[in-house]
Amino acid sequence: MPDVTTPLDPKRWKALIFIALAQLMVVLDATIVNIALPSAQADLGISDGNRQWVITAYALAFGGLLLFGGRVSDLWGRKRAFVIGLIGFAAASALGGAAVNTGMLLGARALQGVFGALLAPAALSLLAVLFTQGQERAKAFGIFGAIAGAGGGVGLILGGLFTEYLNWRWTFFVNIPFAAVAAAGAIAVIREPAGSRNSAKLDVPGVILATLGLVSLVYGFTRAESDGWTAGSTLGLFAAAVVLLLAFVVVEKKVKAPLLPLRVLTDRNRAGVYVSLGLAAIAMFGLFLFLTYYLQVVRGYSPVKTGLAFLPMIATMITGSTQIGARLMNRVPARWLMGPGFLLAAVGMVLLTQIDLDTSYAAVVLPGLMLMGLGMGTAFMPAMSLSTYGVQARDAGVASAMVNTSQQVGGAIGTALLNTIAASATTDYFKSHMKSAGDPKLLTFQSMVHGYSTAVWWAVGILGLSALVAVVFVNAGRQGGAVAGSGDGENAKDAVPVMAH
């Protein structure tokens, strides 16, 4: 019979519904605006130079404030942070949907990022402290992982539907009912375990250094995409990020109540999860972007048809998460789900390197997407669970924030890095075939496809590296038992309860 240190909350499964709903809202918001952006740009008269800020304003605020948001949820209480995050996110979305000019829209996107940075780590840490038994934890994280992985695809579908049949403003307004239902449900059913808050004073120097360091890093990759990797502004931002983040580590070693206790990072399993998820995000974010452009620009798909093309990937991602990852998590060490899962996704990406001007969706794109979804779903579920497994309850918020930080920073890197690779390959192909080309428009499309294919090959390699990191660094046993290699040492008695056999 399992031995647990706290009684189980009888409303935990109801709580999961509203936690998952909030997570879906945050994740789909990252992609739903992408499809609507051309319409919003035309409607509000946003210049090409400012267009990228609709995405960047959100990414900077979200990525830069995640650690702070995680610490605040530990300090205030996860339920309170969760509800405040939902209400703020809904208000910012209403502001964005009602935007009448560029400044109003960019401000709304930044506010969405601020409240998203509070909401996302609160959601994951609530899950960590509510579900502590092996089998239940596997099911709960299976559902959560499937939603986290599939939310981007759902965003593409909804973005297409709203843009084509309603208005781009609905890509913002849709968040309001999501947030209202999730907040009402959270207030009614979520009960935090007693004694799980961290009442220590806020580490203000750590907050400032971490926020500025992460903002510099994310913005550096954003500028690299537009200005080039060797531009003075790009190099300056990267240098600032390194200095600020190194100073942050020094401060965290010395302060009594650090923003990010280094014990969270020195645990090899959590560190392995953060790195492997970050690398996977680099590969996946770039691929979503390329495939969307390929289907819409090269193949002429409508926004709705493009969104529907991603549906099979969402289905297999849910299957991998709930039927493979969740069922095997308590029987197989996490690395033997994460490693093969990332490799299976890489195989799907290899298929997508074969795209051409007239590639069959059913023969190439469909199986590629299905393999990717199945692999990522299988890998993400145990990774999301392991990121908070065995962590001290008072550190659950910041440990959860690190998961989101690794994915957000990875996504920013992936978009910039792979876009740069694709653009360079496209230009080189166009120049080398210009003399022999008969139709300039045809050559333009051929060059674009070559660029996409080249970048996807890089994504394959990055995903392979993610699998290697997972297998080498993650040494935890089955998640139904104690976590191997825990770095929490003498504080293990304060950990989120785990099962003992």
TrEMBL record:
Subcellular location as annotated: Cell membrane
Topology versus the membrane: Multi-pass membrane protein
Transmembrane segments: 15-37, 52-69, 81-104, 110-131, 143-162, 168-190, 202-222, 228-251, 272-295, 307-324, 336-355, 361-384, 455-476
Keywords: Antibiotic resistance, Cell membrane, Membrane, Transmembrane, Transmembrane helix, Transport
Transmembrane among keywords: yes
SUPFAM superfamilies reported for this sequence: MFS general substrate transporter
Main location: membrane
Pfam family, one: MFS_1
Protein name as it appears in the record: MFS transporter
